[in-house]
Specification:
Elements: H1 7-13, H2 17-29, H3 31-39, H4 41-55, H5 57-83, H6 87-108, H7 116-123, E1 127-130, E2 133-139, H8 149-154, E3 162-167, H9 176-193, E4 201-206, H10 222-225, E5 232-239, H11 242-248, H12 255-259, H13 266-276, E6 282-289
Length: 300
């Protein structure tokens, strides 16, 4: 298969022109590699992109974006059509590419994609973006999530249960009403297009569900309101750097670097003061049972 650069898809996803230009150049230079990739994309995408990113992050990021677009425009599109999944869901889910292109420029200073393992979930129909939230095929693993034994005992789903893992993409405000609509859409979507996946409910392993957030966030904040979307939220022992990454694009920072962080929003100001006072960020783990609300809110 000789792939053509998918300019139309780039426009539909709203990719920034500099990243598109870098990907198009990489596409032309690596046409032979991309042809081989498309012969077996599931097996070859991650090794190929991983090697490219390890050799040179800037060059590898452009190549990874080119490879992701090639797979998305051929393999992924064909699989969506085979399942009868609406084009709107295809484009919404692939919107994750645009989000991670912005992240690569913001956090890594390169044009393209750096997080190939994450994008692979979307390319190979393991994760779907439905409304405000993303949903991934998943099996609970409470040891890996570092749930305390006390939390495991009260979990509504057994360890190893089939569930949908919820992700909150960094795109705008997180409104509870929009999250609830996404949960309803997900139940209808997966029951319709993946009836073979009998899932028990939803889980969410995220810094947004850390009880410590109540120490510096306003009680009426959208993040704290998100807690109420779950039947149960339990603490975990998993530390994270998501406050730094999500609010400032930093993977790590010492006290002096934290003191120099920007304070452009009220959340940045409150989080910075919390971190300077020795505050830590962990993940919380949310459980949500199926609601079975009936008809799908998705357009056919």
């Amino acid at each position: 298969m000789t792939p053509a650069f998918p300019k139309a898809l780039c426009r539909q996803l709203g990719l920034a022109k500099p990243a598109v230009s870098a990907a198009e150049a990489a596409f032309a230079q690596a046409r032979g590699q991309l042809e081989a990739l498309l012969e077996n994309p599931r097996a070859r995408f991650l090794p190929l992109c991983g090697r490219a990113l390890r050799r040179d992050k800037a060059v590898g990021a452009a190549f990874t974006l080119a490879a992701a677009l090639a797979v998305a425009d051929t393999y992924t599109r064909a699989q969506y059509r085979k399942r009868g999944i609406p084009e709107a869901v295809y484009l919404a889910s692939l919107g994750d590419i645009a989000l991670w292109v912005r992240d690569a420029e913001w956090a890594d200073g390169v044009l393209g994609l750096c997080n190939a393992p994450w994008i692979a979930h979307t390319l190979f129909l393991e994760l779907f973006w439905l409304g405000r939230l993303q949903f991934e095929f998943f099996e609970t693993d409470y040891r890996q999530a570092r749930l305390p034994k006390s939390a495991r005992k009260i979990a509504p789903f057994p360890d190893g249960a089939k569930v949908l893992n919820v992700h909150i993409p960094a795109r705008g405000r997180l409104r509870l009403s929009e999250a609830e609509a996404s949960f309803s859409a997900a139940e209808a979507f997966f029951h319709t297009y993946f009836p073979e996946f009998a899932f028990a409910g939803f889980v969410c392993d995220s810094w947004l569900l850390d009880e410590r957030n109540r120490r510096f966030m306003r009680p009426d904040s959208n993040i704290l309101q998100f807690f109420s979307a779950f039947d149960l939220v339990v603490p975990t022992r998993r530390k994270n750097r998501e406050l730094l990454r999500r609010l400032w694009g930093k993977r790590r920072a010492g006290r002096r670097a934290i003191a120099a962080l920007s304070e452009n929003t009220s959340l940045q100001r409150a989080a910075k003061a919390y971190l300077l006072a020795g505050g830590k960020s962990y993940n919380g783990y949310g459980f949500r049972r199926l609601q079975k609300n009936g008809e799908s809110p998705l357009e056919p």
